[in-house]
Specification:
With 93 residues, the chain is an alpha+beta fold. The chain has one domain: Roll (SH3 type barrels), CATH 2.30.30. Helix content is 15%, strand content 32%. Strand 2 and strand 3 form a beta hairpin. The radius of gyration is 14 Å and the shape is globular.
């Protein structure tokens, strides 16, 4: 299943109340801490928190190579409700 369009949509509609920071997990098993990003048609460009071992400060990655996103800041669940997330049926009681 190609999740690229889903990741593109999420990053394109990143909640305004959330800082553009986190840790991106790639399908290459790499974790990339970032402090900002820009969206493109097929690629996500991220600003690294610190340079990697080769000195790279920016990363371009195809959306389909994004495996997960880790949030490093405390974020209220209402922020995610605004982008379509819903509580599970057991939490909705």
């Amino acid at each position: 299943m190609n999740l690229g369009p889903i990741w593109k949509d999420f990053f394109t509609h990143w909640p305004k109340v959330m800082a553009p920071t986190g840790v991106l997990v790639t399908s290459y098993d790499e974790q990339i801490p970032f402090i900002g990003f820009m969206t493109g048609e097929t690629l996500l460009m991220m600003d690294r928190r610190a340079p990697d071992a080769s000195g790279a400060r920016k990363v371009l990655i195809p959306y389909e190579n994004i495996a997960a996103l880790k949030m490093v800041d405390v974020v209220n669940n209402s922020v995610f409700a605004a982008v379509g997330f819903k509580p599970s049926s057991s939490q909705a009681k």
